Amino acid sequence: MRRYARTLVAFALATSVVAGTTGWVSGDAQQALTGPPPGSAQWRADRVLGAELPDPERATPAEVAFFFAGLSSGERQLLLVRHPSVVGNLDGVPLELRYRANSLALAAEEDPRYRSLAAPGRQILAFDPRGRGQVAEVFGDLRAARRVSVVVPGSDNDAGTFDREVAAHGAPPGMARTLHTAAGPGTAVVAWVGYTTPVGVGIDAATGSLAEAGAGRLTRFTEGLTADGLPEPAVFCHSYGSVVCGIAARRLPATDLVVLGSPGMRADDAAGLRTKARVWAAKDPTDWIDNVPNVRFAGLGHGTDPTDPAFGARRVPADEARGHAGYFAPGTDSLRAFAAIARGTATPEGAGTPADAQTPQASHALAHAPVLEGIVR
Predict the structure, then answer these.
(1) Would you tell me which of 12, 107, 352, 360 could form a disulfide with 314, CB atoms 3.0–4.6 Å apart?
(2) What are phi and psi of 128, to 5 degrees?
């Protein structure tokens, strides 16, 4: 009976404090945006090329890529002009077309929340104005990159808040920009706000419904990158974004899954993710996420802390990061380690070893070993 009472108390806390970025406040319930891109009905009805176009809801990214590979430049341009919202958001479409399509869509958008996204020179890989809005932006030369990373953020992120100036390295474009700068030439990073995130800290943040919807969208997005001939990405998952990544893991084409400030991945251990990707985890000593109970019961909570030695993830040092949004701060050990993973130069000796193979003494020694500084800078 005492154990049952403790579980109830833990979940009373979990429903009010889970995976957010705005602090200790209640959150509003959100309806996940799912389905094909805006304008798909008109796209399906269009016979401008004399045949049916690939169904945005049913065609796989590989099928979309194959279709566009068979078009002439004039045919591609015709579809881009007639259906910018579909071309700009359809996974598998060549990224150069998506950039141009989203530029057109943003130029025609009247909502003032999205005005800054239309600035010249931005590489907007996805833009959906429906609801709170979704967006993805590229930092670096994605076509030429030898290594690609995708940043998946947590609560309180959407297209309308994407360019907020608070916490320059804590908002999605700031995370991606600082990671790209640290990782250096030959890399590209995508800030992906392609799912409906929780607002504040409430029932949405304590459950997995929005993460389940987001997992499907993340999987399709990354499949679209590889269908377009790009390398499998390393995926960096912050806060509630790590719940999305945990659910997507078994289907996600990725070289690495890196979770930071995670409330759990809806798995008991790394093996339970059923992924071929290397799994890494970071949590700084001042992150309030450490106060969230790592339990799962009746659909609430997200399970084992990925930085727990029993989980089996490779440990990423984060002693120099501060707070829930400080992992990408310039000069921190966490950013240096992330950059090594993004470059593909991180090794078990260089950015953490499987936590279940470490003794507390070995973990402490590794965190402060001089060789770590040399490998991950």
Answers:
(1) 352
(2) -130, 110
- Between the alpha carbon of residue 159 and those of residues 199, 293, 312, 333, the distances in Å are 13, 30, 35, 30
Helix (H, G, I), strand (E, B) or coil at 204: helix
Round to whole Å and give the CA distance between 95 and 219: 17
CA 94 from centre of chain:
20
| Contacts for 47 with CB less than 8 Å, ≥ 6 apart | none
What tens digit of pLDDT does each residue of 283-322 get? 999 999 988 877 665 466 778 999 999 999 999 999 999 9
Question: 193 phi and psi, to 5 degrees?
Answer: -110, 70
Position 175: which residue type? M
What is this structure's pTM? 0.86
**Which two three-digit tokens encode residue 165?**
């100036």
Q: How far from 28 is each of 5, 99, 202, 289, 363, CA to CA, in Å? A: 28, 33, 7, 20, 40
